[in-house]
Amino acid sequence: QVQLVESGGGLVQPGGSLRLSCKASGIFFRLYAVGWYRQAPGKERELVATITSGGSATYADSMKGRFTISRDNAKNTVYLQMNSLKPEDTAVYYCNAPVGARSYWGQGTQVTVSS
Prior knowledge:
- By secondary structure, this protein is mainly β.
- The protein is built from no helices and eleven strands.
């Protein structure tokens, strides 16, 4: 059974940082790309960043230079380092792993950026 579990969200002031983690189980993790998405209240879910099995990263334009995605295959974990956070980064953050014909999602972790 494939499971993705996010953690690391919380309340942070504008300009602060958080590191999110997405731990996978039930798959041979190192073979798969993983993505981080977010969904703010009243908005559609949007792509934040992706990382391939080989470690190549891509980012949505508004996150470039502020967010860094990385992976530790030994720990079956993908990270999202978020710096210079803004109130508009407030959202539930989800990780996603497409495995074959299926797409797996975690339960999400809330990030709130507020003073």
